[in-house]
UniProtKB/TrEMBL annotation:
This is Lysozyme. Residues 35-130 form the IraD/Gp25-like domain. SUPFAM superfamilies: gpW/gp25-like. Pfam families: GPW_gp25. InterPro entries: IraD/Gp25-like, T6SS_TssE1-like, TssE1-like. Transmembrane segments: none annotated.
Length: 154
Protein backbone atom coordinates (compact mmCIF):
# COMPACT_ATOMS: atom_id res chain seq x y z
CA UNK A 1 0.00 0.00 0.00
CA UNK A 2 1.38 3.38 -0.96
CA UNK A 3 1.72 6.09 1.65
CA UNK A 4 -1.42 8.19 1.61
CA UNK A 5 -2.94 10.79 3.86
CA UNK A 6 -4.52 9.08 6.84
CA UNK A 7 -8.24 9.19 7.49
CA UNK A 8 -7.59 11.34 10.55
CA UNK A 9 -5.79 13.93 8.42
CA UNK A 10 -8.69 13.98 5.97
CA UNK A 11 -11.17 14.58 8.79
CA UNK A 12 -9.23 17.37 10.49
CA UNK A 13 -10.49 20.76 9.38
CA UNK A 14 -7.65 23.22 9.88
CA UNK A 15 -9.79 26.10 8.57
CA UNK A 16 -13.43 25.64 9.64
CA UNK A 17 -14.41 29.08 8.33
CA UNK A 18 -13.89 27.95 4.74
CA UNK A 19 -16.56 25.74 3.21
CA UNK A 20 -14.36 24.53 0.36
CA UNK A 21 -12.61 21.24 0.82
CA UNK A 22 -8.86 21.24 0.42
CA UNK A 23 -7.34 19.00 -2.18
CA UNK A 24 -5.19 16.00 -1.47
CA UNK A 25 -2.42 14.91 -1.93
CA UNK A 26 -0.32 16.93 0.42
CA UNK A 27 3.43 17.10 0.79
CA UNK A 28 5.51 14.02 1.39
CA UNK A 29 6.68 15.47 4.72
CA UNK A 30 3.08 15.97 5.85
CA UNK A 31 2.29 12.33 5.04
CA UNK A 32 5.38 11.12 6.92
CA UNK A 33 4.46 13.25 9.94
CA UNK A 34 0.97 11.73 9.87
CA UNK A 35 2.44 8.24 9.67
CA UNK A 36 4.71 8.99 12.64
CA UNK A 37 1.76 10.35 14.64
CA UNK A 38 -0.43 7.34 13.81
CA UNK A 39 2.33 4.85 14.62
CA UNK A 40 3.07 6.53 17.95
CA UNK A 41 -0.65 6.55 18.80
CA UNK A 42 -0.91 2.85 18.05
CA UNK A 43 2.13 2.01 20.17
CA UNK A 44 0.61 3.98 23.06
CA UNK A 45 -2.78 2.28 22.81
CA UNK A 46 -3.38 -0.65 25.15
CA UNK A 47 -5.52 -3.67 24.39
CA UNK A 48 -7.63 -5.49 26.96
CA UNK A 49 -6.65 -8.59 28.86
CA UNK A 50 -9.45 -10.81 27.57
CA UNK A 51 -8.29 -13.64 25.38
CA UNK A 52 -10.08 -13.83 22.07
CA UNK A 53 -11.22 -17.30 21.16
CA UNK A 54 -9.21 -18.71 18.26
CA UNK A 55 -12.41 -19.37 16.25
CA UNK A 56 -13.01 -15.61 16.00
CA UNK A 57 -10.26 -14.81 13.49
CA UNK A 58 -11.74 -11.51 12.33
CA UNK A 59 -11.99 -10.21 15.89
CA UNK A 60 -8.26 -10.79 16.37
CA UNK A 61 -7.58 -8.26 13.61
CA UNK A 62 -10.21 -5.73 14.67
CA UNK A 63 -10.08 -2.54 16.73
CA UNK A 64 -10.45 -4.72 19.84
CA UNK A 65 -6.83 -5.80 19.36
CA UNK A 66 -5.46 -2.43 18.20
CA UNK A 67 -2.35 -1.40 20.10
CA UNK A 68 -0.03 -3.20 22.50
CA UNK A 69 -0.83 -5.31 25.53
CA UNK A 70 0.05 -3.87 28.93
CA UNK A 71 3.70 -4.78 29.36
CA UNK A 72 4.19 -3.20 32.79
CA UNK A 73 4.75 -6.60 34.40
CA UNK A 74 7.05 -7.79 31.62
CA UNK A 75 10.69 -8.14 32.70
CA UNK A 76 12.00 -6.03 29.84
CA UNK A 77 15.32 -5.53 31.59
CA UNK A 78 16.16 -9.12 30.63
CA UNK A 79 17.17 -10.25 27.15
CA UNK A 80 14.06 -12.45 26.85
CA UNK A 81 11.75 -9.62 27.94
CA UNK A 82 13.33 -7.24 25.43
CA UNK A 83 12.99 -9.81 22.66
CA UNK A 84 9.34 -10.37 23.59
CA UNK A 85 8.68 -6.61 23.53
CA UNK A 86 10.27 -6.35 20.06
CA UNK A 87 8.04 -9.20 18.86
CA UNK A 88 4.92 -7.53 20.27
CA UNK A 89 5.74 -4.21 18.59
CA UNK A 90 6.55 -5.99 15.30
CA UNK A 91 3.22 -7.86 15.32
CA UNK A 92 1.25 -4.69 16.05
CA UNK A 93 2.93 -2.83 13.18
CA UNK A 94 2.49 -5.76 10.80
CA UNK A 95 -1.20 -6.12 11.62
CA UNK A 96 -2.33 -2.51 11.99
CA UNK A 97 -0.06 -0.29 9.91
CA UNK A 98 -0.43 -1.35 6.26
CA UNK A 99 1.53 1.67 5.01
CA UNK A 100 4.71 0.09 6.39
CA UNK A 101 6.18 -2.99 4.75
CA UNK A 102 8.79 -5.40 6.07
CA UNK A 103 8.94 -3.96 9.59
CA UNK A 104 11.91 -4.82 11.77
CA UNK A 105 12.14 -4.00 15.48
CA UNK A 106 15.26 -4.32 17.61
CA UNK A 107 16.72 -2.97 20.82
CA UNK A 108 19.01 0.00 20.24
CA UNK A 109 22.69 -0.67 20.82
CA UNK A 110 23.02 2.74 22.43
CA UNK A 111 23.84 1.95 26.08
CA UNK A 112 24.29 4.39 28.93
CA UNK A 113 25.05 3.32 32.49
CA UNK A 114 23.14 6.24 33.99
CA UNK A 115 20.15 6.44 31.63
CA UNK A 116 18.17 3.19 31.85
CA UNK A 117 15.61 4.14 29.20
CA UNK A 118 14.81 1.26 26.88
CA UNK A 119 15.21 2.31 23.25
CA UNK A 120 13.85 0.51 20.22
CA UNK A 121 14.84 0.92 16.59
CA UNK A 122 12.03 0.39 14.11
CA UNK A 123 12.77 0.14 10.41
CA UNK A 124 10.45 -0.55 7.50
CA UNK A 125 9.92 0.26 3.87
CA UNK A 126 7.19 2.48 2.53
CA UNK A 127 5.93 3.21 -0.97
CA UNK A 128 5.94 6.96 -1.63
CA UNK A 129 5.16 8.27 -5.12
CA UNK A 130 5.93 4.87 -6.68
CA UNK A 131 9.36 4.75 -5.03
CA UNK A 132 10.26 2.47 -2.14
CA UNK A 133 11.79 4.38 0.78
CA UNK A 134 13.54 3.00 3.84
CA UNK A 135 12.16 4.55 7.03
CA UNK A 136 13.81 4.37 10.43
CA UNK A 137 12.28 5.38 13.74
CA UNK A 138 13.73 5.64 17.22
CA UNK A 139 11.47 4.83 20.12
CA UNK A 140 11.96 5.40 23.83
CA UNK A 141 9.95 3.45 26.37
CA UNK A 142 9.19 5.93 29.14
CA UNK A 143 10.09 4.28 32.46
CA UNK A 144 7.19 5.67 34.52
CA UNK A 145 4.08 5.14 32.39
CA UNK A 146 5.64 2.80 29.79
CA UNK A 147 4.46 5.03 26.98
CA UNK A 148 6.49 5.24 23.79
CA UNK A 149 7.93 8.40 22.26
CA UNK A 150 8.69 8.01 18.59
CA UNK A 151 10.93 10.08 16.35
CA UNK A 152 12.39 9.68 12.89
CA UNK A 153 15.99 8.49 12.92
CA UNK A 154 18.42 10.89 11.35
Amino acid sequence: MALTVSLLDKLIDSDPTTREEKDFPVSQQHMLNGLLRDLESMLNSRIGWKNIHEDFLEVRYSILNYGLPDFSSMPYSSQDGQSQLCDIVYEAIREFEPRLRNPHVQISDEKNAIDRTLRLEISATCLIDNDIHELKFNSEVEPVNLGMKLSRAK
